[in-house]
Every structure is written in C-alpha cells, then in structure tokens.
Design a protein that fits this description.
Strand order of the largest sheet: 6-7-8-3-9-10-12-11
Order of helices and strands: EEEHEEHEHHHEHEHEEHHHHEE
Strand content: 15-25%
Largest sheet: 8 strands, mixed
Helix content: 25-40%
Structural class: alpha/beta
Number of helices: 11
Number of strands: 12
Radius of gyration: 21 Å
Length: about 325
C-alpha cells in the first residue's frame, strides 16, 4: 500500500532582487532538499526555530507555493506539476489549518459562508438544507453551537476562531490535513482542547496530519514521528520516543534541552545547551552542513560537503558527519 504522502528532495526558493541601479537576483532557500513520508492515519510532527522553513514546507506540499524542484506524491499520484484544474480533486483530499486564527478567516463572511465555501466549491451537496445541516454538524463536532453559523469572526475568541478553521478544513472530509502551528496563538488551556479534538478526529476518521509547531512537548504528545528542520533542511527524523530519548543531531539536542521540566530541582540541575551565534541567512547559507557555524563538533569535513540523512537505527535517521554509514 502506497504512503499517504511522499516528499522527495523538495525545494522551494524565493527570488529576491537587490540594488537600485543594477538589479541582482538572490535566492532565498526556504526549503532545501527535504524528503519524508507520512502513512495513512499517521501524524508527523515538524519542529525547528522560526524561519527554518516548516510553514513553507507545508504550503508547498499543498501547492499554495509552486515547488522549485522535487516531487510531491499523494496516495501514489505525483501531483508536483499539476495545474490548478488538475489539483481541484486533491484540494478536497488535502486541507490546511492556518496558524493565525485572526487573519485566516474572512471578516466580511458569516461562519456559515466560511465553512460552506469549500462545500460549494467541491459540490459536496447542492441542497441548501443539507448544506446547512452539514455546517451545523461541523460546528458541533468542533465544540461550537449551531447558532454560531450566522455570526461573524470578530464575535469569537481566538480559540473559537481556530475551531472554525478546523471545521472549515473538515468540511470536505479530507484524507490529510496540514496543521500549521494551529495552537501557537492560543492560551495554554485552549491548546490542550484543540489538540485533544484533533486526536479524536483522527481516531474517528483515520486521516493523516503534518503537525507543525514550536512546542516540543505538544509535538511529542500528538505525533508518532518527529522531523527536525534547520535552515530549510531536515536534519533528523524518526520515531517520537527515539528522537526524544536519544537525539542524535547536535541541533536536536539543543532544542530538547530547552523543554522545561515541571520539577524545579530537576529544571535547575538540567544541562541546558546554549547555541552560539545567529541563524545564518537562507540567501547565503554556510557551505557544507548549514549548522556547522553554531556546532561545537564542527570539523573541516562539515564545511566541505552537505551531510545526507543516514539511518542510525530502525526508523531513526540523522544528517550529520558525526555518524558514518
């Protein structure tokens, strides 16, 4: 059986022009040679610093951005070069929950129109009464009330708006949802409610998730596997428990050392890894390993060639010259 989603050597470069007299084009390497797969009913968590390319990866997968190169294979079909018309059936199968619940909803539309838009575009039903019933059912599924359908986004809190965004994503019964930091703008108590709701939906439907987030503890809770990105590249990927209990890449170790421990004594005794220097520019990343300018284990080999993902144990891969094939 084919994987639900397979990403092969995906790249997304943005072109930037500098100079007043003579324009010089530069390429922002937002996503640079990323490969991974997601199985049916699986959640892959994607973590990393701000600006590392997580959200751009998600938007490129769903073709909001056209990939520069690489392949996007959904359920055995290569959709990389599909036109908008060819993508329409796959828009129904692939949906996205956006990070900002305030900016992602049209303030001039009622909640019924926001959720019903996808139903109309994909012709899920042509009956107005059935459409209204579907919208009411979706609102109930995400913990809202039926009469909320006639209201506008400004009448809701951030948590409620995110639930509306989730209802919109569920409106066409997708097989796969990209969750682009769906809880980062919410209060901690609301975050838990939204994550629990996503888990319940997955249990009931069997859909797959790409869960993009900063909160490493939450990613560990919801994900089966974890991918770690740095400066547009995937530096480590593996089963959740292996990555968290035995991180291999120096960057992953630094990230995990930042997770707070509830016990004050344990937190005080913890060895926090502080990375030196700033994240390099994606316009002109370091040669070889992109992380070498901030890595205490850096060698001459790290500057010469870019490390590739190597399997260090079953279902655990790392891109680091410290590990040899």
């Amino acid at each position: 059986m084919a994987s639900l989603l397979e990403i092969q050597a995906l790249k997304k470069y943005f072109t930037k022009s500098n100079g007043f007299i003579k324009k010089v084009e530069q390429h922002v390497k937002a996503v640079d040679n990323v490969s991974f797969s997601i199985e049916h009913g699986e959640t892959l968590g994607l973590v990393g610093e701000s600006g590392c390319g997580k959200s751009t990866t998600g938007r490129t997968i769903i073709k909001l951005y056209q990939p520069t190169s690489g392949r996007i294979i959904f359920d055995g079909v290569d959709i990389t070069n599909f036109s908008e018309k060819e993508m329409l059936p796959y828009r129904k199968k692939m949906q996205m929950i956006f990070q900002d619940p305030y900016a992602s909803l049209n303030s001039r539309m009622t909640i019924a129109d926001i959720i019903g838009e996808a139903i109309d575009v994909h012709k899920v039903t042509t009956s107005k009464s059935e459409r209204d019933d579907m919208i009411a059912d979706l609102l109930t599924r995400v913990g809202l009330m039926k009469d909320h359908a006639s209201r506008y986004p400004h009448e809701f809190s951030g948590g409620q708006r995110q639930r509306i965004g989730i209802a919109r994503a569920l409106a066409v019964n997708p097989e796969f949802i990209i969750c682009d930091e769906p809880i980062s703008a919410l209060d901690v108590s609301i975050q838990a409610q939204v994550v629990n709701m996503l888990e319940e939906i997955q249990r009931n439907t069997g859909m797959g998730y790409l869960f993009i987030a900063h909160d490493l503890s939450m990613v560990k809770h919801i994900s089966k596997r974890i991918g770690v990105m740095y400066l547009g590249q995937l530096v480590e990927i593996g089963d959740r428990d292996k990555v968290y209990s035995n991180p291999a890449h120096p960057y992953t170790k630094a990230l995990l050392s930042a997770i707070p421990i509830p016990d004050p004594l344990s937190e005080k005794a913890k060895n926090r890894i502080i990375l030196q220097g700033d994240v390099p520019s994606p316009i002109n990343p370091p040669s070889g390993c992109h992380f070498r300018t901030r890595c205490k284990y850096s060698t001459k080999e790290c500057a010469k060639c870019d490390p590739v993902l190597k399997t260090i144990e079953n279902n655990h891969q790392v891109a680091c010259h410290l590990f040899k094939q």
